[in-house]
Every structure is written in C-alpha cells, then in structure tokens.
Amino acid sequence: MRLATLADRAVLLVGDGAVDIATASHGRFGSDPMQLLAEWDEFVAWAGQAELPAATPYRETDLNAPVPRPRQVFAVALNYRPHAAEAGYVAPEIPLLFTKFPSCITGPHAEVELPDGNVDWELEMVAVIGRACHRVPAAEAWEVVAGLTVGQDLSERRLQLTGKPAQFSLGKSYPGFGPTGPALVTPDELADRDDLAIECLLNGESVQGARTSEMIFSVPRLIEFISAVCPLHPGDLIFTGTPSGVGNRRVPQRFLGPDDILVSRIEGLGELRQTFRSDPEALRPASA
Fold first, then answer.
1. Which CATH superfamily hosts domain 73-278?
2. Cα of 28 vs its chain's centroid, Å
3. Model pLDDT for residues 85-101, shown as the tens digit of each residue
4. Contact indicator for 97, 76 with CB cutoff of 8 Å
5. Could you state, in order of their start, the residue ranges of all structural domains in the chain?
6. Would strands 111-114 and 270-278 be described as parallel, antiparallel, or unpaired?
7. Which residue of 41, 179, 249, 288 has the lowest C-beta tally within 10 Å?
8. Which of 73, 76, 123 is nearest to 96 (CA)?
C-alpha cells in the first residue's frame, strides 16, 4: 500500500492514479492522514479488502508530505560507517539521536528558501510509526512501523555547528528542511525492507549512494533504542541517517545555492525533488 497526501487529502496511490480515501470508504475514514495513522490497524484491514473505485490521474507536484504533522521527529547521526569516517569520527557504539522540529516538514516537491549560511544535503530513509508503543524489543519493532518514505535532512551547517555543544536540531529545522514523500510505503510492498538502494543527485550529479543494509543501526534497533526512553505515537518519524557524500565534507566544500535541483531516490519508495531560492529577508540568529 502507498499512502500519500494529495492536495491535503489522504489518498492511496494505485498505478498511475490516486484514490481518495474518504470518498472510497464512504466516510468511514476521513481525509486527514494523521487520523488514518491513529486508526492504522482498522485502516489497513479496510484497505486490504476494499473494492476501490478507478484511480484518478494526478500531478506529482500536487503531493504533500505523507505525514504532514508528526508529533515527534527523531533523527540519527553517523549511522553509516563511511559518513562517520568522512566526518572524522569513529563509528558510534550506540545510536546518536537528535531531533528535527516538526515545523520543518514539507512535501516531496517543495521549493525551499535558503537562509543565510551553508545549506547541505543529507538523503535519508524515514521510518513512520503506525502504532502507539513503548519499550519495543528489536525483534518486534517492524510490527509498529506503518511504512517507509524518502527524506532529506537539510542542514544549515554554520548554525548547526555553532556553540559548544552545537545547535544540531535548530540548524536542521528551518522551514522546508524536512522534505518527505512521495508516499508512505508499507513494508510488504518491498522485496527486502532492510536493503534498499539510495541515491542523491545534485543538478544531475550523483553525490550520495549506498544501501540501507549498510546502516550501523537498523530500523528495528533504532526503534528499540528510542522507545526504551520515549513512548512513540502514530505518525512519529525516524530519519535513519545519511551515507557519505555530504557537501561540508567535500574538498572543496559544496553547498546548495539558488536554482539548484536536488533529487533524492530510494528503491521502491520513490523520489523527492527540491529546488532552492534565496530568502531576501533571511537573518542569521543574532547569537550565532
């Protein structure tokens, strides 16, 4: 199943078209994707047996974030060994967590305003929680996952690395710095949910490439680690980490500029496409 948000309404993507869920369910389920996630078991049961109407063609640029208002957004640092090495660190022994504030979440085809500073790319697979849970063992963790999607952990490096300790979360949470989509894909749609090819392209040039099986901490291990402390809620997002190839570790460094086109692809999940423009009113935080 591929759950998406089209013109702010929850839809199922079927072939080249979309089916409006509220209409197809005769009002049993509404148009808000967050409410569907809150009723995930009931919704999955309905979708598995429903006789859906013909899908309607749609424009990909009309897709919104599949999970538009997550309650919590977790992110993982240094979860690929080559990325840890390029950043000058040894591979971590436990997951290194930070957060992206939910107001940064946007859709798969957003135009992003560039703040003052050095804006970098970080392609990531994102896990979406589908069931309220707490203290979930890794062996049971896939049972609480509604699906996977593509994400970009866009990062303004000057603010992110300002101060001791650094401003990780704030520098990664400007408006539009959490593109996600194009759809929430349930794991049963994937040949191997633990091993997906991922690639990021900047203006057509491949700048990141890896497989999710190369992550140091898998999705189940991340859920076990996070849920040991934090209760998880339907719609929570976990950005699972980025592979090597980010701009601030290149020689010379390379950052995003106006009119750049960033394409982020994950096998079986689809792709994001971001463009960028300068924000004439952007100000650097005074304390930075």
1. Fumarylacetoacetase-like, C-terminal domain (3.90.850.10)
2. 28
3. 999 999 999 999 999 99
4. yes
5. 2-64, 73-278
6. parallel
7. 41
8. 76
